[in-house]
Amino acid sequence: MTATVKAATSLPVLVKLTPNTGDIAGVARAVMKAGADAISLINTPRGIAIDIARRRPLLGSVTGGLSGPAIKPIALYMVYTVAGAVEVPVVGGGGITTASDALEFIMAGASAIQVGTANFTNPSAPLDVLEGIEQFMKEEGIEDIAELIGVARR
After folding, report:
1. What sections of the chain are H helices per DSSP?
2. Which 3 state secondary structure label does DSSP give 27?
3. Which residues contact 9 (CB under 8 A, 6 or more apart)?
4. pTM
5. Number of domains into which the chain is organized
6. Contact, 151 vs 144, CB < 8 A?
7. Mutual orientation of helices 99-108 and 72-83 as an angle, nearest 10°?
8. CATH code, domain carrying 114
9. How many separate helices (H) and strands (E) can be counted in the chain?
10. How do strand 63-65 and strand 14-17 relate by DSSP bridges?
11. C-alpha dist (Å) from residue 125 to 22, 101, 122
């Protein structure tokens, strides 16, 4: 699929990967080899909820995607793993609600981050995260965020 999309456009191709795989590094290497310009991690892990009164799955589709802070450790692990396996930029996301969360992803190897679910409860979450990163960098005397990318991998 990545190669097909890459052949059909001159725009950069960023591929978002699911965590529902046993070999995230292998999948990431495959999409990189197929031409991905960057890799985004992660999409939502599958989950299920049961309505105990009805004794049935809560969702009509039975399963759904789990998002928000609960998936942060999974997403962070996958970013850390993939960043060490590919030579293209990695975009991290999954449970980022604060600047500290975002900085963890950057230190794990993400060149950029995304804020998703946090927007539902705090529409200014992306701006709050950005301002928090800027404050951290100022306090730490860091001029370029590139100094932090992958620092936990070194």
Report:
1. 2-8, 24-33, 72-83, 99-108, 118-121, 125-140
2. helix
3. none
4. 0.92
5. 1
6. no
7. 30
8. 3.20.20.70
9. 6, 8
10. unpaired
11. 32, 12, 5
Name the DSSP letter for residue 18: P
Q: What is the Cα–Cα distance from 12 to 68, expressed in whole angstroms? A: 27
Q: Quote the pLDDT of residue 18.
A: 93
Classified as helix, coil or strand, 122 is coil
CB distance 94 to 108 below 8 Å: no
Q: Name, in order, each residue with C-beta under 8 angstroms of 128's C-beta and a sequence gap of 6 or more.
A: 98, 99, 122
**C-alpha span between 101 and 96 (Å, rounded):** 5
Name the stretches of the chain with pLDDT < 70.
none
DSSP 87: S
The first and second tokens of residue 133, run together, are: 């990163």
The CA-atom distances, in angstroms, between 77 and each of 50, 64, 103, 104, 115 are 28, 21, 14, 10, 17
Are 108 and 85 in contact, with CB atoms under 8 Å apart?
no
Question: What pLDDT does 154 receive?
Answer: 82
- Residues spanned by the domain of 65: 2-153
Q: Quickly count: other Cβ atoms within 10 Å of residue 61's Cβ.
A: 7
